[in-house]
Amino acid sequence: MRLLYSALSPFARKVRVLALEKGLSERIALETIAPYQDESLRALNPLNKAPTLVLDDGEAVYDSGVICDYLDGLSEPRLIPATQPERHRALTLEAAADGMGDAALLVVRERMRPEAEHRQDVFERQLKAIGAALDLFEKAELSTARFAIAEIAVAAQLAYLDARKVVDWRVGRPMLAAWFEVVSRRGSMIASDASAT
Ligand SMILES: N[C@@H](CCC(=O)N[C@@H](CS)C(=O)NCC(=O)O)C(=O)O
């Protein structure tokens, strides 16, 4: 399998961390791509987004949630709960983390525009979504003992907020900050840290 990814992408980080936690990383060749500049992904994924996983027969699998679901079926331990209510709770937290990442990406891209063209309404709306998602994670009693899909998704997005200096999310969120401090020391988080390479 080949994983087409961009180094700082929090969605790709989620996939890479999950693969590392499941002992699958040896089976996945990593290929970096710049989706905003490079159109070659579009032949595989009409959205031209990374991450995209290419199976050995050439079939493309996207987006990150679907890739994680595919990989989770390949080996133990299972990191996506099979039964309800654990399943919908974990996937809803993953969706909140991914949505926070979409909002963070919009903030980062808006900041790349010339300052005179910054749209305050974009910042306000997206920062509101980011803040509300962070408040949800603060209350979510995330586990340090279990590092499964919800925890992986949240950790990947928090690391992105730090890497891109999107918001000072630790202020007023001591539980989340303490949790992240512990999980960011995991081997999978360290091995997938683009800023460390
Ligand atoms: N929902 C997608 C989001 C992926 C995404 O937004 N990737 C960004 C890079 S971090 C991208 O490829 N953007 C290119 C574009 O929007 O044209 C997923 O979870 O995989």
Structural account:
- It is a single chain.
- 50% of the residues lie in helices and 7% in strands.
- The relative contact order is 0.15.
- It has helices spanning 10-21, 64-72, 86-112, 120-139, 149-163, 174-183, 187-191, and strands at residues 2-5, 29-32, 52-54, 60-61.
- It folds into 2 domains: 2-72, Glutaredoxin (3-Layer(aba) Sandwich); 86-186, Glutathione S-transferase Yfyf (Class Pi), Chain A, domain 2.
- It contains 7 helices and 4 strands.
- The structure holds glutathione.
- Residues 6, 9, 11, 35-36, 48-51, 63-65, 98, 105 line the site of glutathione.
Bin the helical content.
40-55%
Largest sheet: 4 strands, mixed
Approximate strand percentage: 5-15%
Instruction: Indicate the low-confidence ranges by residue numbers.
Output: none
Which architecture of the largest domain does the CATH hierarchy give at level 2? Up-down Bundle
**Helix-strand category:** alpha+beta
Looking at the structure, the CATH topology of the largest domain is Glutathione S-transferase Yfyf (Class Pi), Chain A, domain 2
Strand order of the biggest β-sheet: 2-1-3-4
The beta-strand count equals 4
Quickly count the domains: 2
Shape: globular
The SSE order reads EHEEEHHHHHH
N→C terminal distance: 23 Å
User: How many helices in DSSP terms?
Assistant: 7
Radius of gyration: 17 Å
Question: Would you state the CATH class of the largest domain?
Answer: Mainly Alpha
